[in-house]
Amino acid sequence: MSDFKVDPDFTITDEQTLRSLFPAQTALAIHKCQNLLDSYAQDFIRRSPFVCIGTQHADGRADVSPRGDPVGFVEILDQHTLAIPDRPGNNRLDSLVNILANPNVGLLFIIPGFDDTLRVNGQASLVTDPAILGGMSVNGRQPKLAIVIKVSEAFMHCAKAFRRSHLWDPEHFQDRRDMPSLSKIILDQTTGAPSDAEAMRQIDADLEVEYKKSMY
What we know:
The protein is of the alpha+beta class. The protein folds into two domains: 26-165, Pnp Oxidase, Chain A; 174-214, no CATH class. It is 30% helix and 25% strand. It is built from eight helices and seven strands; from the N terminus they run H-H-H-E-E-E-E-H-E-E-H-E-H-H-H. It has a seven-stranded antiparallel sheet, with helices on one face. Strand 3 (75-78) and strand 4 (81-85) form a beta hairpin. 15% of the residues are buried. Residues 41-158 form the Pyridoxamine 5'-phosphate oxidase N-terminal domain. This is Pyridoxamine 5'-phosphate oxidase family protein. InterPro entries: Pyridox_Oxase_FMN-dep, Pyridox_Oxase_N, Split_barrel_FMN-bd.
């Protein structure tokens, strides 16, 4: 497959041209954005077991990282401040390094079964305060740090994307077995996966064991 190249004649390069393609924002879309977490936003966060964090590296590279835990794992410290526990991962530390370079982050809170979402933007810092971390322990394991976010914007996002995608509709669920396992994909992309099916099954089983040992 040859590399695709965008035709510059059809590239939008300024905001005025962009906005000319769309109707003007409604007053409601503008005014729904708040600079704090009201009771509705707080209730949404307390119900959410999953949030995506958007960050940006000093050189401009963007990244989005999923974070999941038991319902209500994101701590609401006050109406302007959130704390997200950092759980064990692959130690790439992409989001954390990005925050050190550029504290501006965007969050998308998701609740299973809800088509609407909550968006929160703010400035993040990495915190090791025991007073914060102490309440974030799961299975007796305390996180090494928390991402503390000072909220600058918070607003509900409409259901269109989730309804278009049928994300929660079981009739649209796909069979994970239609693609290779995560272990095989990564091995194929790197050192090479074993050709022996039994050896590959053992690697997949070992990953499941590792999940159970290293979730917290």
